[in-house]
């Protein structure tokens, strides 16, 4: 498909040795990383801090691009730029945005998270359904998804994105949520656990939760000051 859009969640961990560099070296390498992340290109990237929130992960890059090649080039640029050379990819989730077979007319709540104001928190995770799910007929699957979506629509303060990962990553889907209230999001997840769709879930971990911050602020928190 020529109009495909690719989404990528890249979780990076910083080598502790970077903090033992001189102040000038820390600042210089941080500036190089910030420039690489912010460089104008066809890739849209938002940055999130995960410092201390998950072992081994400090920065989450959430990107949208028209091609896989563009995502690769952006990742390569980041990882070879100053502070980026001290980072290791801990998690990488890839998906392709396309129309859902269960939603005829998506609401703003179900649109791409790359438009409009950023919420305070981003939650992303891989998601895989069972073989039995795919062997159900369309009508049966639609009924289950209708219940699932009805619950989600009650939590309008939580925006979501579902990208397809079939054939391009280990999971079936890449799922992402944006919210300003993690407690409300937790209630949504708890309620969804009680729906019929939960029976077909095979995998929905690891869950990555990041705080939206400019890359310059994240590098300062990590010690570039």
What features would you highlight for this structure?
elongated, Alpha-Beta Plaits, alpha+beta, 2 domains, 225 residues, 6 helices
Q: Tell me, what is the CATH class of the largest domain?
A: Alpha Beta
Query: What is the total domain count?
Result: 2
CATH topology of the largest domain: Alpha-Beta Plaits
- Derived from helix and strand composition plus strand pairing, the structural class reads alpha+beta
* Low-pLDDT stretches: none
What does this structure look like?
The chain starts with a strand and ends with a helix. Helix content is 30%, strand content 32%. Helix 1 (23-38) packs antiparallel against helix 6. It has six helices and nine strands, in the order E-H-E-E-H-E-E-H-H-E-E-H-E-E-H. It is elongated. Strand 6 and strand 7 (173-179) form a beta hairpin. Strands 1, 2, 3, 4, 5, 6, 7, 8 and 9 form a nine-stranded antiparallel β-sheet that branches. The chain has helices at 23-38, 68-79, 131-135, 138-153, 182-192, 215-222; strands at 5-14, 44-54, 57-65, 87-97, 121-129, 159-164, 173-179, 201-203, 208-212. The protein has two domains: 5-96 and 214-222, Apc35880, domain 1 (Alpha-Beta Plaits); 104-209, Alpha-Beta Plaits, CATH 3.30.70.1030. With 225 residues, the chain is of the alpha+beta class.
């Amino acid at each position: 498909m020529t109009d495909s859009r690719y989404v990528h969640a890249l979780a990076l961990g910083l080598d502790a040795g970077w903090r033992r560099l001189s102040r000038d070296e820390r600042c210089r390498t941080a500036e190089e990383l910030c420039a690489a992340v912010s460089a104008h290109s066809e890739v849209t990237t938002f940055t999130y801090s995960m410092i201390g929130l998950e072992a081994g992960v400090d920065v989450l890059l959430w990107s949208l691009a028209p091609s896989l090649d563009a995502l690769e080039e952006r990742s390569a640029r980041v990882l070879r730029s100053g502070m980026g050379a001290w980072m290791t990819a801990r998690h990488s989730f890839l998906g392709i945005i396309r129309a859902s077979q269960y939603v005829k007319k998506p609401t703003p709540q179900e649109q791409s998270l790359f438009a409009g104001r950023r919420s305070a928190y981003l939650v992303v995770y891989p998601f895989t359904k069972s073989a039995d799910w795919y062997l159900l007929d369309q009508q049966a699957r639609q009924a289950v998804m209708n219940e699932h979506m009805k619950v989600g629509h009650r939590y309008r303060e939580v925006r979501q994105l579902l990208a397809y990962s079939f054939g391009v990553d280990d999971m079936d889907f890449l799922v992402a949520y944006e919210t300003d209230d993690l407690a409300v999001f937790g209630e949504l997840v708890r309620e969804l656990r009680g729906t019929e769709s939960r029976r077909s879930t095979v995998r929905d971990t690891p869950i990555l939760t990041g705080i939206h911050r400019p890359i310059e602020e994240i590098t300062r928190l990590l010690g570039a000051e």
